[in-house]
Specification:
Number of helices of chain B: 24
Radius of gyration of chain A: 22 Å
Radius of gyration of chain B: 27 Å
Structural class of chain B: mainly alpha
Strand content of chain A: 5-15%
CATH class of chain A: Alpha Beta
Order of helices and strands of chain A: HEEHEHHEEEHHHHHEEEHEHEEEH
Number of helices of chain A: 12
Helix content of chain A: 25-40%
CATH topology of chain A: Alkaline Phosphatase, subunit A
Shape of chain B: elongated
Number of strands of chain A: 13
Distance between the termini of chain A: 42 Å
Number of strands of chain B: 9
Largest sheet of chain B: 2 strands, antiparallel
CATH architecture of chain A: 3-Layer(aba) Sandwich
Oligomer: heterodimer
Largest interface: A-B, 82 and 81 residues
Shape of chain A: globular
Helix content of chain B: 40-55%
């Protein structure tokens, strides 16, 4: 049933631009993993730090005690006043991890430096704005290479503007190769599905035609990339292109819920401030659907620009820019008038961010799984803020939350203190939980910069 | 509401050792840079051999290639190009992953249908009569798509593909099916999506570009699209083999309206004009503000830049000091000038000495301010980074906030900032020496850019001193934004910085150490002879650095 695609098409005036290549016409062996149980990872990133016991702020984020989590324990008493209370319904499927260090701060621009580190655990080129480039691959690409169809890139989404001081910087296909982010849920959806349904015979011809063109393009790419005088950077870029050509031959016909499809279509200005939370939810719809349909195994979603400048609407009130709130003044810099009650406003935004994350968990939990109670239980759904707190914008106590058991590979229902150890350990753990292994078949324990201490969080992994 | 100042910019690098003694551009000392005078050749810096078209270039190129009556507006649906440099022309930073590949595939299929919808559309695509036979059609289409003469092997491969159209597209008429399939492939070819530069011949220590590679460089630098017929002809005839031949084409292309768009885009990006569309002010404090003012401020700057560079054919000094602007009714209201109506920017003379040049215009002043107050730190930082290339390191992020301002104290913004970042404070290194003197010069312009006589009821001190020539050891004194702009216009730093930005924009890569002599020469030309901007552009395009590749590739 392709009702949703038709729905989208009606919204576009019925224009048919291309056809999906049916999976039934393509070899399933193209998936890297053998058919059967799949595991998925999604990384949702917020910015500007949180209100926790740091930098002079009171504790407003974490439960009072580390240890076992229960729904009742997270929503009652002082814990009910903490931002993480928003996730109490999922207490037994959560890992709350505080005090995770991003190692490579240069005391320059916290936002610009943290963003390329958070999923790479790599060093960076330094600078401000969009200048810093990660000197390593991000974990979503590593997971994609292990779990996706050959050549299929991870999905990279951003709810935020393209013209901004610090734009996307979460996903890196290789050292210094930033992955551009899709800003429109509708474009993301259309790109994943193709745009129309057609009789099988027509689709067969489309597949054949695309294959012929792809063969032609592949030959040319190989010829160009085989030139001896190309730099290694150029060769990396052309290799990425070659892999992309392979990936496009895989499309599926699994469909999105009609109501969600209508909501996806309804957003015409996805970069606008006023629809930011709505865009986040719609990207989450698309991501959960992509997992369900096995179109991709890993997604990143960056909420807001690097120093999130969104003016959020909470309980009917339009807040000042989030970045200003995180500085506690009406300014991106260091001088300006004080924002009254800025800590409370920041806390309310923390709560909003976690309500948005809960929306993702609700969506994942709504899909069935052949192996687990729900799709959520096959996932490692991750929420992270790339800074630890407000005014100092520290990078040594960033908050991480993992939801879902990654198909039974993660122990959940715990609140842990990472004690300022580095984020590569968390990334190794997540990747290992969703099935990534080193060449020798052992758990991934060496992701990120070689100078970092290797390892996994063995206390939360059930696999060895 | 308690005002608050937080400390910032405590920079160990700002100890006076930042600059390394280079004159021309104030960039920090780079160990890779040879001392002045040791490098005499204008040898090219390393660059990608396969820069990818950015989205704007793609949109322009498909329009010209297929001779479409209007831009198809497909690139606006593509995944956004990543950023990472000051300008959007660095194709070596752009790649194709499965997401963007799906965009290119979808666009190619749609464009191929559009271009071969019927015989009339096909004739338009060929610019007149459709060549007879698939091979002839392929040769012409490939020449334009690859922007060079295709090899026989390439033509054969495309003809083979086109001949499969009868099988793969059985419902499409034979006369259209072949070209359609060929176009689908051409629009996805790496020779279309990238600008491969694969020349290998070494002459006099560099690799000269082939005529077609050079034609492409010229065209994408000046027009952001493929070469036109005259440029193709110049490449085919060998006219581009000489510096004069390149200069002839460059001058012709600079007369084309497309060059005006390119020059405008350079200044928009350099001056961060996009930020003007985020400016918001409380209309109680700033009754002149409306959302329409954003567009008016942008129009003021763009009209001024175009007038100086194209109508007056003048240079950087005029951009920095001209005692006039172009204001519509909205902008004129902020300037307190009556008699201007409508939304068309009209020339407005400044005869009172309070304004002159880009940095006393509203776009710069309002985008470097908070919602209520001036922001001397950002004004000073902007000019240090983008206009003087002083190479300041960015501020630290882990400095805790300082105590808030005592509400009973009445202090000017200058006093407040100096108390935390001035001499004798931990911010002295960068602020007191480089940032604050520049920023304070604009204190007579408030957060929207209006002229003001006082700050918090107190007199304004907009004086300062700055070391514009690091070899001189003597600081230059100035009072106010107009005087500062004059000093900047007289400095080698600003002119060196400006041509360096132009190099990065036109060449699609940062300046290399080997290009320092070229920058010094053009910076001096700009400063001493007030060379028109268009001449600087032409000089950059005819230089050895533009017309060749280095023997040594980038890593």
């Amino acid at each position: 049933m392709n009702f949703s695609r038709r729905l989208i098409l009606r919204g576009l005036g019925g224009v048919t631009l291309s056809f999906p290549a049916l999976t039934s016409l393509l070899p399933r062996a193209a998936w890297s993993q053998p058919m059967g149980r799949r595991r998925f990872a999604m990384f949702v990133r917020a910015g500007n730090g949180i209100v926790q016991n740091s930098g002079g702020d009171p504790e407003r984020f974490w439960p009072e005690q580390t240890g076992v989590l229960t729904p009742e324990g997270m929503r009652t008493g002082v814990n009910g006043t903490r931002a993480t209370a928003e996730l109490a319904d999922y207490a037994t499927r959560l890992l709350l991890i505080k005090n995770v260090r991003l190692q490579f701060a240069r005391n320059q621009c916290g936002h610009a430096e943290a963003l390329p580190q958070v999923l790479t655990a790599a060093q960076h080129t330094g600078g401000t704005g969009n200048s810093p480039r990660a000197r390593g691959q991000s974990i979503d690409w590593r997971i994609a290479q292990a779990n996706n169809a050959a050549g299929a890139a991870p999905l990279t989404f951003m709810a935020g503007p393209r013209q901004t001081f610090i734009a996307e910087g979460l996903s890196w296909s290789a050292s210094e190769m930033r992955t551009p982010a899709e800003r429109s849920p509708l474009n993301a959806f259309m790109r994943l599905t193709g745009l129309a349904s057609a009789p099988p015979e027509v689709q067969r011809l489309v597949v054949e035609r695309r294959k012929s063109v792809n063969d032609f393009v592949r030959d040319q790419l190989r010829e160009v990339s085989g030139k001896a005088q190309l730099s290694s950077a150029d060769k990396r870029r052309l290799t990425l292109h070659l892999e992309a050509v392979r990936d496009t031959e895989l499309r599926m016909t699994c469909d999105l819920d009609p109501t969600q499809a209508m909501q996806v279509r309804a957003i015409s200005n996805p970069e606008s401030n006023d629809v930011r939370p709505e865009v986040v939810r719609r990207f989450m719809d698309v991501a959960a659907w992509a997992f369900h349909c096995q179109l991709n195994s890993v997604v990143t979603l960056q909420v807001g620009d690097g120093n999130d400048q969104t003016q959020y609407d909470i309980n009917g009130t339009r807040y000042p820019r989030f970045h200003w709130i995180s500085h506690r003044i009406y300014s991106d810099g260091a001088s300006g008038e004080t924002i009254p009650n800025a800590v409370e406003l920041h806390h309310q935004i923390d709560r909003l961010q976690l309500r948005l994350f809960k929306y993702l968990l609700d969506r994942l939990a709504a899909y069935p799984s052949a192996y687990s109670p729900t799709l959520l239980d096959d996932c490692a759904a991750v929420w992270v803020n790339d800074l630890g707190n407000g005014p100092p914008h520290a990078a040594d106590n960033t908050p991480w939350i993992i939801a879902g058991g990654a198909g039974g590979n993660l122990r959940t229902g715990m609140h842990l203190d990472h004690q300022r150890r580095t984020n590569n350990l968390v990334l190794n753990t997540i990747a290992s939980a969703v099935g990534v292994r080193k060449a020798d078949g052992t758990l991934l324990d060496d992701f990120g910069d070689p100078s970092l201490t290797r390892g996994v969080m063995s206390n939360v992994l059930t696999v060895t | 509401m308690r005002p608050l100042l937080a400390s910032l910019l405590v920079l160990s690098a700002c100890d006076g050792q930042v600059f390394g003694g280079l004159i021309g551009s104030g960039r920090p000392a780079d160990p890779a840079l040879p001392p002045r005078g040791e490098v005499e050749l204008e040898t090219p810096g390393p660059s990608s051999r396969v820069p990818r078209l950015n989205h704007a270039e793609y949109e322009n190129t498909v329009t010209d290639f297929l001779r479409l009556p209007a831009k198809p507006n497909l690139a606006s649906t593509f995944v956004t190009d990543s950023t990472g440099s000051m300008f959007d022309t660095n194709g070596g930073l752009l790649s194709v992953d499965s997401t963007s590949w799906a965009d290119y595939q979808r666009a190619a299929e749609q464009l191929a249908v559009t271009a071969t919808q019927d015989q009339a559309a096909l004739a338009r695509t060929f610019g007149g009569a459709v060549p007879q036979g698939l091979e002839a059609q392929v040769r012409e289409l490939a020449r334009r798509a690859y922007r060079r003469q295709p090899t026989d092997a390439e033509v054969t491969a495309l003809v083979t593909l086109g001949n499969r159209a009868a099988t793969l597209s059985p419902t499409v008429p034979a006369a259209l099916g072949g070209p359609r399939l060929v176009l689908e492939a051409l629009l996805q070819s790496p020779h279309f999506l990238y600008r491969p530069e694969l020349s290998e011949t070494v002459e006099q220590g560099v690799m000269p570009l082939s005529a077609y590679e050079l034609a492409n460089r010229l065209s994408y630098a000046l027009w952001h699209t493929m070469p036109d017929d005259l440029l193709f002809a110049a490449a085919a005839s060998g006219d581009l083999s000489t510096k004069e031949g390149v200069a002839t084409q460059a001058r012709r292309m600079l007369r084309d309206p497309r060059a005006q768009e390119t020059v405008a885009s350079f200044h928009d990006q350099l001056l961060q004009l996009q930020k003007v569309f985020d400016v918001t002010r409380n209309t109680t404090l700033f009754p002149e503000f409306s959302t329409a003012l954003r567009q008016s401020m942008a129009a003021e700057q763009r009209t001024f830049v175009r007038h100086v560079i194209f109508d007056q054919r003048q240079g950087l000094s005029t951009l920095l000091t001209a005692p006039y602007t172009f204001a519509d009714a909205n902008v004129a209201r902020v300037y307190g000038r009556s008699g201007v109506t409508g939304s068309t920017p009209l020339r407005l003379e400044f005869t009172d000495g309070r304004r002159g040049g880009l940095f006393t215009q509203l776009a710069f002043l309002s985008t470097n301010a908070t919602s209520t107050e001036t922001d001397p730190i950002h004004r000073g930082t902007f000019l240090n980074f983008r206009i003087l290339c002083t190479g300041l390191p960015p501020p630290p992020n882990n400095v805790p906030p300082l105590p808030g301002e005592d509400p009973t104290m009445r202090r000017t913004m200058r006093d407040r900032i100096e108390s935390f970042t001035g001499r004798g404070t931990c911010g002295e290194g960068c602020h007191s020496t480089f940032i604050n003197p520049i920023g304070f010069a604009f204190e007579h312009y408030d957060a929207l850019g209006r002229w003001r006589e006082q700050d918090k009821g107190l007199p304004i001190d907009d004086s300062g001193e700055f070391l514009f020539d690091f070899a001189a050891d003597t600081k230059t004194r100035f009072e106010g934004g107009v005087a500062l702009s004059r000093e900047i216009a007289a400095s080698q730093m600003a002119h060196g910085c400006y041509v360096e930005h132009w190099l990065e924009y036109l060449y699609g890569r940062p300046m290399a150490a080997s290009e320092r002599p070229l920058m010094d020469r053009l910076g001096t030309l700009s400063r001493l002879e007030d060379a028109p901007v268009l001449r600087l552009v032409e000089e950059l395009l005819v230089s050895d650095a533009f017309r060749a590749r280095p023997v040594e590739e980038q890593p």
